[in-house]
Amino acid sequence: MILVTGGTGLIGSHLLFHLITNGNSVRSNYRTKASIEKVHKVFGYYTDDPSHLIEQIDWVQADIADLGGLDSLFDGIEYVYHCAALISFDPKDFKILERTNVEGTGNVVNLSLKHGIKKLCYVSSIAAIGPIIKGKESTEENEWNEAKASVYGITKYEAELEVWRGSQEGLSIVIINPGVVIGPGFWKSGSGTFFSYASKGKKYFIPGGTGFVTINDVINAMAKLMDSNIQTERFILVNQNMTYEKLFQKIAPKLGVAPPTKKVSKFMLECFWRWDWVRSNIFGKRRKLSRAMANGLYHQENYSNQKIKSRLDFTFEDLDKSIVFCCDKFMEKV
């Protein structure tokens, strides 16, 4: 049996669909019944009978940060895809990020060792890759620099250290570092916010850019890595390095609106992160833009995908087709 932690998220839900439709016996944890409804919605993008597939999953209510309730989650498990994580760039959330991303991953590693798991695939992030060097593509060998990382990136890097520790103790592991994952279903978080923002016909786009990858590429790469003899390695998963302006130019017309044409200036970003700090500290509002995030938005981040392409003879799918598919699914919900 295969365990998928974080099966109710974007990557986890698509991974569950892949595994179930390929005849695998699968277990996944969840926190609330409402979160399973999100999986049902994602499955509905690809099949007319999502309920039938949902019922084939062995659902267990469990929090990876709560070690006491996790042991039974691993009974009878041979392979683990660890997708569970908390995403936040608010410095105030550091402790909860650390609890979920670092301590939770430590729990998964320890129980994988205890139960003799054959192989673990950990879903990290390009946020855990070392700092960007202007004019160069970042690789898996970038040197880490915590001073230039977001709180989310710091906890994902520390979570990777837990996975590397497990490998030193005899656990077979692989790590993936996806870019911004383009996939349907979660329109109020992650890449889904690009579609929601574009649909409103907004005029401004943020400067800079980063690496993007389709959800199908992420799932296929994970499955291929788990089926291979490759272990104790990490792989960047990025299809294209692209500006946010270019991304909106691809999304907006498919949603029937004009793409944004005005770049948010450096001055505006400087003002906004300061105002965001004030509203957070005085009014208790959740941070939307930290100083580190604002600084990162000034630049184009470029990532190399040569390692995954050469080691697995991996071919990335057409990113534009995936964007069109997401736009179609987004329009269905309107």
What is the topological layout?
Elements: E1 2-5, H1 10-21, E2 26-30, H2 33-44, H3 50-54, E3 58-61, E4 79-82, H4 94-114, E5 119-123, H5 151-168, E6 173-178, E7 180-182, H6 192-199, E8 204-205, E9 209-214, H7 215-227, E10 233-237, E11 240-243, H8 244-251, E12 262-263, H9 266-283, H10 291-296, H11 306-312, H12 319-333
Helix pairs in contact: 1-2, 1-7, 4-5
GO molecular function, one term: aldehyde dehydrogenase (NAD+) activity
Protein name: NAD-dependent epimerase/dehydratase family protein
Pfam family, one: Epimerase
Q: Short description, anyone?
A:
Helix content is 43%, strand content 15%. The chain has helices spanning 10-21, 33-44, 50-54, 94-114, 151-168, 192-199, 215-227, 244-251, 266-283, 291-296, 306-312, 319-333; strands at residues 2-5, 26-30, 58-61, 79-82, 119-123, 173-178, 180-182, 204-205, 209-214, 233-237, 240-243, 262-263.
Explained architecture:
InterPro entries: Epimerase_deHydtase, NAD(P)-bd_dom_sf, NAD(P)-dependent_oxidoreduct. With 334 residues, the chain is α/β, with parallel strands linked by helices. Helix content is 43%, strand content 15%. The protein contains twelve helices and twelve strands. The longest helix is centred in the first third of the chain and has 21 residues, at 94-114. The chain is globular and about 55 Å long. The protein starts with a strand and ends with a helix.
Strand fraction equals: 5-15%
Average the pLDDT over all residues and give the rounded result: 92
How many helices in DSSP terms? 12
> According to CATH, what is the class of the domain at 2-186 and 211-241 and 302-315?
Alpha Beta
Tell me the CATH architecture of the domain at 2-186 and 211-241 and 302-315: 3-Layer(aba) Sandwich
> What share of the residues lie within helices?
40-55%
Order of helices and strands: EHEHHEEHEHEEHEEHEEHEHHHH
Provide the gyration radius in Å.
20 Å
The residue ranges in which pLDDT falls below 50 over 5 or more consecutive positions are none
